[in-house]
Write a structure and sequence with these properties.
Elements lengths: L1 E6 L4 E5 L5 H10 L7 E3 L6 H12 L3 E5 L2 E5 L9 H6 L7 H8 L1 E5 L12 H9 L3 E4 L3 E5 L8 E3 L5 H13 L3 E5 L5 H12 L3 E3 L6 E4 L10 E2 L5 H14 L1 E5 L8 H9 L3 E4 L4 E5 L10 E3 L11 H8 L6 E4 L10 H6 L5 E3 L2 E4 L9 E3 L3 H12 L4 E6 L3 H4 L3 H7 L3 E4 L2 H6 L5
Parallel strand pairs: 2-14, 3-13, 9-10, 17-18, 21-22
Antiparallel strand pairs: 1-22, 1-23, 3-5, 4-5, 6-8, 7-8, 10-12, 11-12, 14-16, 15-16, 18-20, 19-20
Helix pairs in contact: 1-2, 1-7, 4-6, 5-6, 6-7, 8-10, 8-12, 10-12
The chain binds ligand EPZ.
Ligand EPZ binds next to helix 1, helix 5, helix 6 and helix 12.
Length: 432
């Protein structure tokens, strides 16, 4: 168990550049298996999920090296059997379904882990691959897929625009025999990023970023390799913006087009922050002495809607704002597990199913809280920046899955925030 100590009440100031997006890096790592030539990913942060992906790649026999922020891969025969450890460590293990099926002809994947946001089925991944000719067997805690010969092209409609399933089926179709059409696809920027990577390696994908993808299949592995710097992490960028809103001060987020998080920046602006958007960066400023405005009624949705991963961060901003607010998450049933932590900080927020009801106007104070998941944990750290006194966030390992060093990032902006050394943490281990 790691502990993060936050002492609130200090305004932030400075500039920060988010690393490459976790949710782009993870599918790209898996997609390297589809390439017949070496690949390089640049600017890769040392996240726990990245390390779990590298461990998964090594466990199946892939040639992979992580050095100086770059991941280098080289083609090599691999096994389709994914060990339970890396599979359970993250949701991103589902991205290996299609690549291992293509590379090894079969895949056995223990059901993926990741944040407990409620049920996270993978039926669309499996149904789409089955439509392409894969034989799919579901077991109690694993799935096994087999193909005989090449997968065949499909005209397939996703029953909902799942990000992960779009990536799975896009990768599979890029290596199938013939021309596929995927309808009802997710449009998140990470899809276009993955399509650009695959196209650089020889795939023929058109329409990424729209609901209809037209994909010419290679009938096997992609002939080339690719070198790419994945897009910046829009959720990390939103975290820094939320931190500026909670603590007050002025933070510029560099190297991240504001269009990647427009609904979140519009929300901060409506709450009373001064948001200055430029082509490739943006600034969020707030007078720490002036209370924010509540009265928000937010509802998350697929791109270009209000990103579900930013919902707990928005809630953190609204806890002390003047006026009641609501946040509804349309994607995940248990998005607001961080509510217990918000309550310990002095906010009267209540989670009712997919809705979070926030009375607003809370005078937040430090407390001992627990990170329930990745973004909920980041939201607790962010809220604590605006709380009086010391907050201790116990984290069983969620936050490092998505941020290499969130306390370090915030400290660089002037926050009093740090990971406690193990000896210090031992002294406070009796804190609930
Ligand atoms: C990705 O998850 C991200 N994870 C999530 O980020 C993010 O919250 C989510 O997309 C939505 O933007 C990764 O990229 C690793 P979905 P994913 O498939 O692909 C349902 C973070 O904190 N569904 O778009 O799992 C599903 O239950 C994480 O960085 C099915 O029913 O999300 C959910 O309600 C958390 N059947 C909805 O679709 C399926 O086969 C959207 O999920 C697949 C999904």
């Amino acid at each position: 168990m790691e502990w993060i100590e936050v002492t609130g009440g200090r305004p932030l100031a400075g500039r920060i550049r988010p690393a490459a997006a976790k949710n782009s890096v993870l599918p790209l790592l898996a997609a390297t298996l589809l390439c017949a030539q070496p690949c390089t990913l640049r600017g890769v942060p040392p996240l726990a999920d990245v390390r779990a992906s590298l461990a998964l790649l090594e466990a199946v026999g892939a040639a992979v090296r992580f050095a100086g922020g770059c991941v280098y891969t080289a083609p090599r025969p691999v096994s389709g059997r994914v060990p339970p450890g890396p599979a359970a460590a993250m949701r991103g293990s589902v991205f290996y379904l299609a690549p291992l099926l293509m590379r090894a002809g079969r895949v056995e994947l223990p059901l993926p882990g990741g944040c407990c946001l409620g049920p996270r089925p993978i039926d669309i991944h499996l149904d789409g691959l089955s439509a392409m000719g894969a034989h799919v067997e579901t077991r109690p805690a694993a799935v096994a897929l087999l193909r005989r010969g090449a997968l065949h092209a499909v005209d397939y409609t996703l029953r909902l625009p799942s990000v992960g399933a779009t990536l799975t089926l896009m990768m599979a179709a890029a290596c199938a025999q013939g021309h596929s059409i995927l309808r009802g696809a997710a449009c998140e920027p990470e899809i276009a990023d993955a399509a650009a990577f695959l196209n650089a390696a020889g795939a023929q994908i058109e329409g990424a970023g729209t609901p209809v993808l037209r994909i010419g299949g290679a009938g096997g592995l992609l002939p080339g390799g690719a070198c790419r710097t994945p897009l910046p992490d829009r959720i990390a960028a939103a975290t820094y913006a939320a931190a500026a809103a909670c603590a007050g001060g002025c933070v510029t987020v560099e190297g991240c087009p504001p269009a990647l998080l427009e609904p979140f920046l519009n929300f901060l602006s409506a709450a009373g922050c001064t948001v200055t958007a430029r082509a490739g960066d943006f600034t969020v400023a707030r007078d720490p002495a002036a209370p924010l405005r509540g009265g928000a009624a937010l509802c998350t949705g697929a791109w270009p809607g209000f990103a579900t991963d930013t919902a707990p961060l928005a809630a953190a901003v609204l806890l002390a704002a003047q006026g009641a607010s609501t946040v509804h998450d349309s994607l995940f049933e248990n998005r607001f597990a961080c509510t217990a932590g918000f309550a310990a900080l002095g906010a009267g927020a209540q989670a009712r199913g997919r809705d979070l009801v926030i009375p607003g106007g809370a005078a937040l104070h430090g407390a001992a809280v627990t990170a329930p998941d990745l973004r909920g944990g980041a939201a607790l750290v962010t809220a604590a920046l605006g709380a009086a006194g010391r907050t201790l966030v116990a984290d069983p390992g969620h936050i490092r899955r998505g941020y290499a060093d969130l306390p370090g990032d915030l400290a660089a902006l002037g926050a009093r925030c740090r990971y406690l050394a193990p000896q210090e943490a031992e002294k406070i281990v009796e804190v609930p």
